């Protein structure tokens, strides 16, 4: 995805988020943004009993990733949609918006 002229790697962003103690599963997609072209949107499945607010997530990012990689929005989901092989189906994520 591209945001504000930066080419972003979804795998890199996802790998960082999976180190958060509350995150069980995670996927990132680019969503249309009039200013930046695309902005980062995160879908997060939390570990049992965990909670997560956007402001906490944004603070947690400090020093772990560049500011342009931090999501502009998050959506907490019970589970991520997956295909028969277990791979997250990102087109299905866009339907959850």
Automatic annotation (TrEMBL):
Residues 12-87 form the AMP-binding enzyme C-terminal domain. This is AMP-binding enzyme C-terminal domain-containing protein. Belongs to the ATP-dependent AMP-binding enzyme family. It comes from Candidatus Seongchinamella marina. It comes from the Bacteria. Pfam families: AMP-binding_C (PF13193). The lineage of its organism: Bacteria, Pseudomonadati, Pseudomonadota, Gammaproteobacteria, Cellvibrionales.
